Amino acid sequence: MYSWVSKRRLEVVGVLFLSSMVLVWSHLSCFMTDGQLRGNTLSLVLFCVVGGCYAQSVRVEWNKIGNGLWMLLWMLLLPVAEVYVVELLARQDAARLLPHLFGFNYFWCLVVTALLFAITSHYRFSIVSSAIFFYLLGTVNHFLLDFRGTPFQLTDIRSAGTAMNVAENYAVVWDSELLLAGGILFLVVSLAVKAQFHFQRRYWYTAVGNIVLFAFLAGAVTHFYSDDLWEKYKLEMNFWNPLVCCTDNGTILVLAMNGKFLEPSKPEQYSPEWVEKIVTAAVGTKREDGATLLQKPNIIVIMNESYADMRVLGDFTTSAPYMTFAENLQENTIKGTLLVSTFGGGTCNTEFEFLTGMTMKFLPPGVSVYQTMIVKPMESLATTMREQGYQSIAFHPGKPTSWRRDVVYPYLGFERFLTEEDMEDPQYIRDTFVSDESDYDTVIQLFEEKGDKPLFLFNVTIQNHGSYFLDTVGIPKWVRVEGTQGNYPGAAEYFSLMRASDEALERLLAYFQQVDEPTLILFFGDHQPRLEEEFMEELFGKSLDMLTHTELQKRYQVPFFLWANYDIAEENYGTISVNYLSTLLLRTAGLEMSAYQQYLTQLHQQIPAMNVHGYIDQDGQDHIWDGETETAAWLKGYEAIQYNYFFDDKRHVSQLFHLYSED
Predict the structure, then answer these.
(1) Using CA atoms, how far apart are residues 308 and 485, in angstroms rounded to an integer?
(2) Bridge partners of residue 456, in order along the sequence
(3) Which H or E run contains 424?
């Protein structure tokens, strides 16, 4: 082996070095903490850049054995660096992983590199592509942790289009972790590609070698997903706290483990006949008819973006009240707490649970239902309302393609879908999102234009969407957080928006109070906002990583109320989950319910509230999901019904989900 430096290489490397130095210098603030320079981190970045550039400047000639050993060495070492880099970008230390868990993370990095090599028969391409892949994976996970507080999951791939729309409203900036991770991989790759390797596809033994490598990788991956291996090494997914799951097991391993749960399996003993028997046993052979109504009420459902009462997490005060009207609403009002399955995002999943009465518990973890599961016409609350003579309209003052709503809403039975593009001169808050006041103006307009048919309107607002570090244009009054140790501008912006929502809500209900036609308005939030982590930790009085199950479930609670412009019995309903909310609405309105919806009313008596993380029993106690609970039989039936609803196209028991007149 010998090496030398050429003038041409020095010129190329010089440009690369200067570019790297400019990048580091322009982001020097990333290495500052409380005005102090973090010299160790900066020095490590500079070492990686200088070392990588030096390695690139040198050309090495190997003998055959040395070249082969160098290739093998870095094929084995690169996955180690990739594990550390991905964990670094997740703000975790890979060295803290248990040896066998580190080994599984290493295994998947090695699989990717070996697979690229088997496909291309090109060593350098495999090394560079693998490093870029895991750097991008770590970067996406890095920003998702900042934006929504949960790690990247395989199902996020299917939501890429919506994610890009959402990302426009968040600040994507470089930080020291991104620079350090990039520097480490640059150094490793620069050393690895010193080996000489050329395409060898023309040789028959290359093809044979690739086939053997493919077969080995397929066998290794298949063995990884075997139940025996998972049981031997106690591999378990922590679905109720995916962040802790990644901390304990490693980000790459958890991503791979997600692959085992991408498609729900058929429930044991499943059959369409069993599904029909389950519903019949719960509600009887004679369905409960709705009340005889002189005039069916108009139904307006408002799912308000990120609408939540954060005081459920702990005590704090604000410089001005921000929920005065909603808090004092009493007359002709049913109020309560709603348990949802999402936090900080995933609006479409709350929509799905409300409109269908199904639950996220039985679907793959992290899935965005609208992106992957709604691919055909399906029954929903909209079809129930249409069967009772209602016109069904969906309205969202955002982009029609977000969460594929332009495709999903027609599948769910809505006759019309209106968006921001259909509004007349919409007004914005923060120069980004249509205000609730402007949204409600359109709601009123749709009501006034409805004609003779009663109206069913499903409105998903957008004003309070994150991020909460945008400009403050259009916010009528600023609400500061008080009584806390820290300064939380994001929380202040959120509470200021909530005050604007409260004022818009008061104006909306004042309008319908004067309307002669009976009208019922259901109002609820889709999920809590993602505010500063330090703010939430101060409310809890502990690190978010240390939350108990009951404390964690508080992050999945939002308010709801049912209000009518006619007489209904006032009630404090307590806690209910979003999958039951449509049946409460139908019962309050005095409308008919399908056999499945009547089944939900019976299920609600057994399990008053549930989400993906657990359930609340009849005594109001929180529980994690456990197959040995008294609710197991009900859950098996519920799962079978949902499987028939989603997946059994040929034997779909449609009569359970529709209204039929008795002979």
Answers:
(1) 22
(2) 299, 392
(3) none
- 95 class by beta-carbon count within 10 Å (0-12 exposed, 13-18 middle, 19+ buried): exposed
- Pick 192 or 52 by higher pLDDT: 192
The answer for residues whose C-beta is within 8 angstroms of residue 551's C-beta and 6 or more apart is: 540
Please give the Cα distance from 326 to 336 (Å, whole number). 12
Cα dihedral value 515, 521, 527, 531, nearest 10: 30
In whole angstroms, what is the distance from residue 353 CA to residue 349 CA?
Answer: 6
Using CA atoms, how far residue 402 sits from 148, 397, 406, in Å, is 17, 11, 8
Concatenated DSSP letters of 605-662: HHSSEE-SSEEE-TTS-EEE--TTSTTHHHHHHHHHHHHHHHT-STT--GGGSS----
The DSSP bridge pattern shows strands 571-577 and 557-564 to be unpaired
What's the pTM value of the predicted model, to 2 decimals? 0.75
- Chain centroid to Cα 92, Å, comes to 21
pLDDT of residue 558: 97
The two tokens of residue 474 are 């259009």
SS3 395: strand
Cα distances (angstroms) measured from residue 454 to each of 222, 308, 387, 520, 660: 55, 30, 12, 11, 20
Average pLDDT, the chain: 86
Higher pLDDT, 472 or 508: 508
481 sits in which H/E element = strand 481-482
Average pLDDT over residues 38-64: 76
Strand pairing partners for 562? 334, 522
Q: Is the CB of residue 369 less than 8 Å from the CB of residue 404?
A: no
Length of the chain: 663
Distance CA 116, CA 133 (A): 11
Beta-sheet pairing, 333-339 with 557-564: antiparallel
DSSP 533: H
* Gap between the terminal Cα atoms of the chain: 92
Count of beta carbons in the 10 Å neighbourhood of residue 111: 17
Q: What 3-state DSSP class applies to 391?
A: strand
What is the helix (H) or strand (E) element at residue 58, kind and residue range? strand 58-61
Sign of CA dihedral 533, 467, 85, 241: positive
**Residue 198 to residue 71: CA distance in whole angstroms:** 12
DSSP assignment of 59-107: EEE--HHHHHHHHHHHHHHHHHHHHHHHHHHTT--GGGS-HHHHHHHHH
For residue range 543-556, what is the model confidence (pLDDT) as tens digits? 988 899 999 999 99
